[in-house]
C-alpha cells in the first residue's frame, strides 16, 4: 500500500492507530482513582509526545542514516517557532502559513549551516553544529531583541500582543491559533463511566502531521537515496571511490532533518503561540540526541518511542513526591519504609534528570540499539523459549 | 595603551580556565583517544571541593554566652567553628579564611580517585567503540554527575570568597607607570594555572614516566610490544587530567560562584578551544585557550559591542568556525588525528 512493502505498511498502520487512539490508550486509569497521575492523556502532554516525535524522526534521518552527530538541531526548532509566531503577529492566526514558513525558514538556515558544517566530519562536525546553534541562541537571547530591531523579544520570548498588526485577522475567527476557524485549543471531553477522555484539535493536527512525516521517513529509509545515506555511514571513502560524491547527499539529509525540526518548532508555536530562545540552547539539542539513542538509532519507530518515553517519564517522575512514595512503600515496616523513600528520593521530582542520565548511560552501554533492540531481544527470547518447548531440547540458533 | 593591556589581563583569567580544561581534554584524547564530554563536570566537581571544604571548616557548635545578650535581652547563642576551638581563635579564623587554597589539598586526591574510577569503571569499555558512543556515554555521565551535585548542593550559585589577604584590587601596572587596577585573586589564578600547565609539560618532558607516555601517544602498539604496561600509565594520565580539571575548578570558585551547570557551560567552550588549538596538540590547547579568552575580553569592550552588537556572545564560536574552515586541523593539529 502507498508504495510500501507489507511490513512497513503494518508499521505505518500501527503508528496511525496508536496516534489516533492515543487519548484512549494514554488514559487507562479512571479519572479520580489513585493511579490517575499515571494518565498521560491530556492535550498538552500528548501534543508534546507527537511534536518531539517529529523532531526525533527528523534527527534520525541525519544521525541514524549518515552517522553525522549534530549537536545543534534545536536551533532549527527555535527558528521554526520564531517564524511561526511572526506569521501570527503580522498576518493571521491560521496555522497553515505559519507552519509552512517555519519549515521554509528552518530549511534555509539548515542549507547555510549544513553547507558549512558538512565540510568536516566526526567530532569536528559536532562542534561546528554546536557552535552555530550556540551562536543562534546567544543572538536570539540578546542582540536580536534590542528596541530598534526586536526580532526575538529576548528573555520574555516572542508572543502575540493585542496591538499587533494581524492583517488578515477577522473578528469571527478565534483569538488563538486556528485551522480555518477551528481553534487549536478546542477540546471535546468524553466521559465514559469513571473514565474521562479528551480529544483536542491541536493534538489531532499534530498527529496527522506525524503520520505524514512518518510515512515520508519510511519512504526515505527505503529509497535509493536512503541507501546512499547508509553508504555514507558505513564507508565514505569507498563510496567516493565508486564515483559518488557523498556531500550533496549528506547536505540533503541535513536539510531534510532541519526542516523536520522546523516543522516541530512551528507546531509547537501553533499549539502555544510563544517562542523562546531557550528552545535553541544546546541542552535542547542534547535532548533530541537522548531521545533518538534511547529509542533506537537508525530504526524507523525508535525515535518516536524514545521521544514518547522521555516526555512521559519526565512528566510522571517529576510529579511523584515523598508522600506518594510513602504510600507505595506503606506495606513495609516503618524503618524500611523510610529507608526506601530515602533511597528513591533523589531520583524523583526534580531529580528526574538524574534518572534520565543513568538510564541513558545504561542504554548506551548495554543496549546500543535502544528500546527497539530491547524489544527485539525480548521477542527473540520468547520465540526461542517457545521453540525450545516444542522440540524439547535447547539448541543454539544458527547464525 | 593602558586599556589595551587591561583587556588582555581581563582575558587571562577566563583564558586560564579554558586552557586548563582544554589541556586535560587533550591529555585524555591524546593518550586514550577518548572524547570526554564529562570533563566539564570534573571542573565543576573541583569547584565544589572548595565549597565542601569551606563548609566543613565552618561546622560549628553553639554555646550560650551569658555575658552577651541579643536585642530582646535573651542570652546570645554564639557559634564557634570547631576549628577555632582546636587551633585557637586566631589560627582557626585564618584557616577558615584560607579554605579555598586549602581545598587544593583535598581536590588532588579526590579528583585522581574519581578519574581512576571513571577510566577503569566506564571508559575502559569504550575504547573499541565509535567516537559517537564515547561522546554519548560521557555526556550521560556528565548529566549524572551534575544532577548529583545539584541534589546535595542545590541549584543556586554558592559564594566562596578568596582569602582576605587576596581580595580586593591591586594596581599591577604601578611598576611601569601605568594605571591598571586588577583583582588580586585573578592574578593568583593566572599564576596558578601557569604553574599547573608548566608542571604538566615538565612532567611529560623530563620524567621517564612522561617519556613513556609521550612514546605511547605516538605509537601505542610499539610501546606495548616493548613490554611496557602502557594501559596503566594511560589510566594514570587520565587521573592527572581529571586532577588538572579539578584544580582549575577549585581555584575558579572565588571568581565565579560555583553552580551545578558551570561545568557544561565551560565544557562547550573548552571543546571549541580544543578544536581550534588542534585535536591532540597540548601546546595548541593552551595557546588557543589563552587566545580565545583574550579575544572574548576584547569583544566585550564597549567599542566592540557598539560597532558589532552581540559580538561578545558569539566571538568564540565565530573564531572556531573560521579556524575549522580555513585550517581544518586547528592551529597546531597534527596530521592523522581524528580523521577518517
UniProtKB/TrEMBL annotation, chain A:
Pfam families: BPD_transp_2 (PF02653). The keyword Transmembrane applies. InterPro entries: ABC_transp_permease, LivM-like. The keyword Cell membrane applies. It is found in: Cell membrane. It is a multi-pass membrane protein. Keywords: Cell membrane, Membrane, Transmembrane, Transmembrane helix. The chain crosses the membrane at residues 49-69, 74-92, 98-116, 123-144, 201-221, 251-270, 290-313, 325-348, 354-372. PANTHER family: ABC TRANSPORTER ATP-BINDING PROTEIN (PTHR30482:SF17), HIGH-AFFINITY BRANCHED-CHAIN AMINO ACID TRANSPORT SYSTEM PERMEASE (PTHR30482). This is Amino acid/amide ABC transporter membrane protein 2, HAAT family.
UniProtKB/TrEMBL annotation, chain B:
The keyword Cell membrane applies. It is a multi-pass membrane protein. Its main location: membrane. It holds the Pfam family BPD_transp_2. The chain crosses the membrane at residues 16-35, 42-61, 95-114, 187-213, 234-255, 267-295, 307-325. Keywords: Amino-acid transport, Cell membrane, Membrane, Transmembrane, Transmembrane helix, Transport. The lineage of its organism: Bacteria, Pseudomonadati, Pseudomonadota, Alphaproteobacteria, Rhodobacterales. Coiled coil: none annotated. Belongs to the binding-protein-dependent transport system permease family. LivHM subfamily. This is Amino acid/amide ABC transporter membrane protein 1, HAAT family. It is found in: Cell membrane.
Amino acid at each position: 500500500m502507498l508504495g510500501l512493502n507489507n511490513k512497513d505498511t503494518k508499521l505505518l498502520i500501527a503508528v496511525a492507530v496508536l496516534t489516533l487512539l492515543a487519548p484512549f490508550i494514554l488514559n487507562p486509569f479512571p479519572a479520580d482513582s489513585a493511579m490517575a497521575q499515571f494518565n498521560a492523556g491530556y492535550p498538552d502532554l500528548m501534543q508534546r509526545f507527537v511534536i518531539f516525535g517529529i523532531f526525533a524522526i527528523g534527527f534520525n534521518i541525519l544521525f541514524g542514516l549518515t552517522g553525522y552527530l549534530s549537536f545543534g538541531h534545536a536551533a532549527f526548532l527555535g527558528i521554526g517557532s520564531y517564524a511561526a509566531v511572526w506569521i501570527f503577529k503580522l498576518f493571521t492566526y491560521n496555522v497553515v502559513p505559519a507552519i509552512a514558513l517555519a519549515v521554509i525558514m528552518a530549511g534555509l538556515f539548515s542549507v547555510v549551516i549544513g553547507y558549512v558544517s558538512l565540510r568536516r566530519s566526526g567530532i569536528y562536525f559536532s562542534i561546528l553544529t554546536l557552535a552555530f546553534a550556540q551562536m543562534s541562541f546567544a543572538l536570539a537571547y540578546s542582540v536580536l531583541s534590542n528596541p530598534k530591531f526586536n526580532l526575538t523579544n529576548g528573555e520574555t520570548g516572542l508572543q502575540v500582543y493585542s496591538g499587533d498588526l494581524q492583517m488578515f485577522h477577522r473578528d469571527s475567527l478565534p483569538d488563538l491559533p486556528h485551522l480555518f476557524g477551528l481553534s487549536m485549543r478546542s477540546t471535546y471531553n468524553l466521559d465514559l463511566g469513571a473514565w474521562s477522555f479528551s480529544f483536542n484539535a491541536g493534538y489531532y493536527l499534530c498527529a496527522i502531521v506525524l503520520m505524514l512525516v512518518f510515512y515520508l521517513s519510511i519512504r526515505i529509509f527505503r529509497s535509493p537515496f536512503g541507501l546512499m545515506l547508509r553508504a555514507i555511514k558505513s564507508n565514505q571513502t569507498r563510496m567516493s571511490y565508486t564515483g559518488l560524491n557523498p556531500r550533496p547527499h549528506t547536505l540533503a539529509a541535513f536539510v531534510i532533518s532541519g526542516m523536520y525540526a522546523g516543522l516541530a518548532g512551528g507546531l509547537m508555536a501553533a499549539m502555544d503561540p510563544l517562542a523562546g530562545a531557550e528552545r535553541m540552547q544546546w541542552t535542547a539539542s542534547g535532548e533530541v540526541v537522548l531521545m533518538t539513542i534511547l529509542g533506537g538509532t537508525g530504526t524507523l519507530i525508535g525515535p518516536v518511542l524514545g521521544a514518547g518515553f522521555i516526555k512521559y517519564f519526565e512528566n510522571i517522575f517529576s510529579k511523584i513526591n515523598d508522600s506518594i512514595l510513602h504510600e507505595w512503600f506503606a506495606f513495609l515496616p516503618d524503618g524500611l519504609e523510610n529507608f526506601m523513600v530515602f533511597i528513591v528520593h533523589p531520583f524523583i521530582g526534580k531529580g528526574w534528570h538524574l534518572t534520565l542520565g543513568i538510564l541513558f548511560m545504561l542504554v548506551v552501554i548495554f543496549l546500543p540499539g535502544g528500546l527497539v533492540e530491547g524489544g527485539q531481544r525480548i521477542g527473540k527470547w520468547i520465540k526461542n523459549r517457545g521453540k525450545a518447548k516444542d522440540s524439547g531440547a535447547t539448541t543454539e540458533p544458527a547464525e | 595603551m593602558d586599556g589595551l593591556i587591561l583587556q588582555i589581563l581581563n582575558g587571562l583569567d577566563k583564558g586560564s580556565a579554558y586552557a586548563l580544561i582544554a589541556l586535560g581534554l587533550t591529555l585524555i584524547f591524546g593518550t586514550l583517544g577518548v572524547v570526554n564530554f564529562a570533563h566539564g563536570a570534573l571542573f565543576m566537581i573541583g569547584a565544589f571541593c572548595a565549597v565542601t571544604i569551606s563548609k566543613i571548616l565552618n561546622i560549628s557548635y553553639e554555646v550560650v554566652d551569658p555575658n552577651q545578650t541579643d536585642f530582646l535581652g535573651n542570652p546570645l547563642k554564639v557559634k564557634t567553628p570547631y576549628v577555632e576551638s582546636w587551633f585557637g581563635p586566631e589560627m582557626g579564623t585564618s584557616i577558615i579564611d584560607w579554605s579555598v587554597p586549602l581545598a587544593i589539598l583535598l581536590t588532588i586526591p579526590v579528583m585522581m580517585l574519581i578519574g581512576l574510577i571513571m577510566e577503569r569503571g566506564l571508559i575502559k569499555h569504550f575504547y573499541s567503540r565509535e567516537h559517537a558512543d564515547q561522546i554519548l556515554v560521557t555526556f550521560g555521565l556528565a548529566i549524572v554527575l551534575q544532577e548529583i551535585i545539584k541534589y546535595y548542593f542545590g541549584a543556586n550559585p554558592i559564594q566562596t570568597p578568596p582569602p582576605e589577604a587576596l581580595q580586593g584590587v591591586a594596581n599591577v601596572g604601578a611598576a611601569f607607570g601605568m594605571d591598571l587596577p586588577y583583582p588580586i585573586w585573578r592574578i593568583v589564578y593566572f599564576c596558578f594555572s601557569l604553574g599547573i600547565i608548566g608542571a604538566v609539560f615538565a612532567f611529560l618532558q623530563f620524567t621517564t614516566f612522561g617519556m613513556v607516555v609521550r612514546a605511547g601517544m605516538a605509537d601505542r602498539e610499539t610501546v606495548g610490544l616493548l613490554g611496557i604496561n602502557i594501559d596503566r600509565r594511560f589510566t594514570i594520565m587520565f587521573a592527572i587530567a581529571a586532577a588538572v580539571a579539578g584544580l582549575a575548578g577549585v581555584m575558579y570558585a572565588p571568581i565565579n560562584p560555583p553552580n551545578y551547570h558551570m561545568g557544561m557551560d565551560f565544557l562547550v567552550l573548552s571543546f571549541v578551544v580544543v578544536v581550534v588549538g588542534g585535536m591532540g596538540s597540548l601546546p595548541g590547547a593552551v595557546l588557543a585557550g589563552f587566545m580565545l579568552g583574550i579575544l572574548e575580553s576584547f569583544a566585550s569592550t564597549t567599542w566592540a559591542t557598539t560597532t558589532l552588537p552581540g559580538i561578545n556572545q558569539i566571538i568564540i564560536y565565530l573564531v572556531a568556525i573560521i579556524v575549522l574552515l580555513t585550517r581544518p586541523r586547528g592551529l597546531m593539529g597534527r596530521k592523522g588525528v581524528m580523521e577518517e
